[in-house]
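Need residues for this backbone.
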């Protein structure tokens, strides 16, 4: 073994030894906490699993997301068409307020959101901005957790599936946002066909 190889090996060992911060767990498909909802059309199937339990959120993200005013949603999408490629974009994922207990939007002036208000998906930059200085101690690790698990924009060929997490904000801190929202998703066929819209209640 050459000196350069030994040096490289030592660098790797030192790097691994220094990574003593507990890592979040990777989410495994099929381990829903009984909260998964499924929406279907003839063209697609979307299963959504909201993370509103504090212990579950901390287990996978090292953060109580609901307490921080962030909605976390695990999404699984299946293209059921025989001949259409579908475009999956986070911009086309929304929480639609239906009324009920949860207050969203206009949180800075204390007003409740009206039924029909839409909460859009947010990117990692916006999410970290919302978390702000309160997460400084673990900001890098938390950002890595959210980034590594995020659903990326992509295309799905016929028969393909994909899954990942989508994040929404603002939701009112500490309240169960699932009680007064439905998940609205639009998938875009790439051959100038009408969008496929699925609402999961």
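Answer:
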């Amino acid at each position: 073994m050459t000196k350069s190889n030994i040096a490289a090996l030592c660098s790797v060992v030192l790097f691994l030894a220094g990574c003593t911060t507990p890592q979040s767990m990777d989410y495994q498909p099929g381990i829903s906490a009984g909260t998964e909802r499924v929406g279907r059309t003839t063209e697609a199937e979307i299963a959504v699993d909201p993370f509103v339990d504090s212990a579950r959120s901390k287990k996978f993200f090292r953060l109580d997301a609901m307490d921080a005013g962030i909605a976390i949603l695990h999404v699984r999408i299946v293209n059921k068409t025989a001949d259409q490629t579908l475009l999956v974009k986070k911009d086309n994922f929304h929480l639609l307020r239906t009324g009920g207990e949860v207050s969203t939007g206009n949180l800075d002036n204390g007003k409740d959101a009206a039924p029909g208000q839409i909460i859009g998906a947010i990117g990692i930059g916006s999410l970290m901005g919302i978390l702000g200085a309160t997460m400084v101690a673990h900001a890098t690790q938390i950002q890595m957790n959210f980034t590594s698990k995020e659903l990326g924009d992509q295309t799905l060929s016929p028969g393909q599936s994909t899954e990942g997490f989508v994040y929404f904000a603002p939701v009112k801190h500490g309240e169960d946002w699932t009680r007064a929202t439905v998940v609205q998703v639009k998938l875009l066929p790439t051959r100038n066909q009408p969008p496929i819209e699925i609402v999961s209640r």
